[in-house]
Amino acid sequence: MKVAVYPGSFDPITLGHMDVILRSAAVFEKVVVAVLKNVDKKGLFSIEERVEMIQKLVQKYDNIEVVSFEGLLVDFMKSIDAHVIVKGLRVGLDFDYELQMAHMNRKLSEERVETVLMMASTEYSYISSSSVREILHFKGDIREFVPEEIVDDIYQKVGIVLEGMCNERKL
Ligand code: PNS
């Protein structure tokens, strides 16, 4: 079975991530969304919250699984016998970083792991989790950037009640 692993921090998942997940699920037999437990970096959302939000979004797809992992990605890939990493490419700036990571992961895995880059759909190419976190910090509107099924969950988790949107959104 051709399994693709889509790794990331997903703090939080965005429309851009979802686009890559769903398009990958149409290309590979199975997609494993792998959420990094980064011991050095405390995120806005806990690992459990991130996994839970992604699970809510992909539960209707039989060939998409969500897990968390720690340590090296290639070690996690070996543990599930997967050989393909999928990464999204938004703008040219992403390319140098992804190129380096792809070579690094190939070398670390003794050439058993390949990286496939999927071009982000143009309408999502400017979206990043860090921008979403910044908007949340200033209590702004994230509805254009994250899947609508988890907008309320996100606002609740960060304890935001958007006054201007209260009536309209019943938050
Ligand atoms: O969403 P992100 O934060 O850009 O994702 C980065 C991620 C999780 C793909 C990357 O940091 C990663 O694979 N981390 C695990 C450690 C590892 O294997 N690093 C590569 C060798 S240096």
Automatic annotation (TrEMBL):
Domain Cytidyltransferase-like, residue spans: 5-134
GO molecular function, one term: ATP binding
Pfam families on file: CTP_transf_like
SUPFAM superfamilies, per the entry: Nucleotidylyl transferase
Residues where ATP binds: 9-10, 17, 88-90, 98, 124-130
Site (Transition state stabilizer): 17
Enzyme Commission number(s): 2.7.7.3
Compartments it resides in: Cytoplasm
GO biological process: coenzyme A biosynthetic process
Stored Gene3D superfamilies: HUPs
Annotated catalysed reactions: (R)-4'-phosphopantetheine + ATP + H(+) = 3'-dephospho-CoA + diphosphate
Pathway given in the UniProt record: Cofactor biosynthesis; coenzyme A biosynthesis; CoA from (R)-pantothenate: step 4/5
Residues annotated for substrate binding in this entry: 9, 41, 73, 87
GO CC, alphabetical: cytoplasm
Cofactor(s) in the UniProt record: Mg(2+)
Top EC category: transferase
Main localization category: cytoplasm
Keywords: ATP-binding, Coenzyme A biosynthesis, Cytoplasm, Magnesium, Nucleotide-binding, Nucleotidyltransferase, Transferase
Family note: Belongs to the bacterial CoaD family.
Described purpose of this protein according to its UniProt entry: Reversibly transfers an adenylyl group from ATP to 4'-phosphopantetheine, yielding dephospho-CoA (dPCoA) and pyrophosphate.
PANTHER family: PHOSPHOPANTETHEINE ADENYLYLTRANSFERASE
The protein's assembly and partners: Homohexamer.
Name of the protein: Phosphopantetheine adenylyltransferase
Organism whose genome encodes this protein: Proteiniclasticum ruminis
Top-level taxonomy: Bacteria, Bacillati, Bacillota, Clostridia, Eubacteriales
Gene: coaD
